[in-house]
Design brief:
The chain is mostly helical. The chain contains five helices and no strands.
Length: about 170
């Protein structure tokens, strides 16, 4: 076989391999239930928002408790976001882009103790909603990998809720 012909065959095989992987990823994505897909998208948006909220808390928080909790939010949610991004890639899901402007407006213009109180209230409310969504996915989702990730992430969310509740809110 000539070199030129060998190169053509290798090129065709390589292209077939890539197309096959793209089709496999697309098939994986199409197998997901709407609940699983919606959960992944909402968890991604919420996780990115938590990182931005934590960064804001580190910058604008006045109490050492808010600053420490804000750092924990950034660290834990960055890790969870990375895990979710890898899982989504395996499942053929394209996650929404990060949108720092999607921060809840309740923190805008707040400073000092007002910021700390609003930050704590928002963290409690947000983590209560997150826990409910993660419990629903862990209990009734259909994709075993997504369910496992939701279950694995729940203890961290519960710990965040407890820590947020311990912050001064009055």
């Amino acid at each position: 076989m000539s070199f030129r012909r060998l190169l053509t065959v290798c090129s065709i095989l390589g292209t077939s391999f890539l197309v096959g992987h793209a089709v496999a990823a697309n098939n994986e994505s199409s197998k997901l239930s709407s609940q699983d897909r919606k959960f992944v998208m909402e968890a991604a948006k919420g996780g990115m928002m938590e990182v931005h909220m934590g960064q804001m808390g580190q910058d604008k928080g006045t109490s050492s408790g808010v600053k420490a909790f804000a750092k924990q939010l950034v660290d834990d949610h960055t890790k969870a976001n990375d895990e979710l991004m890898n899982l989504a890639k395996q499942k053929g899901i394209t996650l929404p882009p990060d949108n720092p402007s999607a921060m809840p407006k309740g923190l805008n213009g707040k400073t000092g103790d007002d910021f700390d109180r609003e930050f704590a209230k928002m963290a409690v409310d947000d983590h209560q909603k997150d826990i409910a969504a993660f419990e629903k996915e862990a209990n009734s989702g259909t994709d075993p990998d997504i369910k496992a990730w939701a279950s694995k992430t729940l203890p961290t969310l519960r710990q965040h809720l407890d820590a947020a509740k311990a912050l001064p809110m009055k």
